[in-house]
Amino acid sequence: MSESPHTIALVEDDSALRETLTELLATSSRWKLSGSYQNAVEALPRLLAEPPEVVLMDIQMPGMSGIECVAKLKASCPDLLVLMVTVYDNNDRVFEALAAGASGYLLKRDAPTRLLESLDDVLTGGSPMSSAIARKVVQFFHKEPPSPNRDLHLTPRETQILELLVKGSLYKEIAWELNIGMETVRTHLHNIYTKLHVRTRTEAVVKYLGH
Predict the structure, then answer these.
(1) How many angstroms separate the Cα of 75 from the Cα of each of 36, 38, 86, 117, 153?
(2) Is the model's pTM score more than 0.85?
(3) Percent of the chain residues past pLDDT 90, beyond the cut
């Protein structure tokens, strides 16, 4: 018995790209398009009424930006996964999107070849990014080395786990790396999120990098 496809919605004002992404999703039995919208103003109430598992979100749209839409969606649907698909690769846009709650950031030029792989990554707890975006994040990290235990009152174990989150490790990989159980990882993550005043791993990573 085959498993049910995952639901996904598309918010993109470029009609040609929207059609391309729709056709690409149709080639995979793992995904079912639950909605396709040309702007965030139209999409927001429908996505809040019937949230899919994943949303592909453009950034620059008339009426409401994708970043603002993501923040509103995550406030009501914290478990919703959002992958930004955009032409923007400047640092401010990247960190604004991640801070709003996006799980990944894919440049439009990479979407046709990397979309399905990136969606699988999002589902398993990853934070996929185009290589150009990942390089910017790494450069920022090297430029301003964070000290998460300074001022944030994290324990040494919590600091270890946070550093593994930044590297993109999945929860099961963290458990294996530190030789602890999954429930222990979840307990530490809960404590980390509480101390950092965040709700998601992406927000925790952004706070770590900014700190």
Answers:
(1) 21, 22, 22, 27, 26
(2) no
(3) 28
Looking at domain 6-139, does it have CATH number 3.40.50.300?
no
CATH 3.40.50.2300 domain range(s) in the chain: 6-139
In the CATH scheme, what is the code of domain 145-210? Answer: 1.10.10.10
pLDDT in tens, 149-170: 456 788 889 988 888 877 777 7
CA dihedral for 6, 7, 9, 10, sign (positive or negative)? positive
| Cα–Cα dist 40/58, whole Å | 9
Query: What are the residue ranges of CATH 1.10.10.10 in the chain?
Result: 145-210
Structure tokens of 128? Answer: 């996929």
Instruction: For residues 50 and 76, give the distance between their C-alpha atoms in angstroms, rounded to a whole number.
Output: 12
- Give the tens place of pLDDT for each residue, 35-57: 999 999 999 999 999 999 999 99
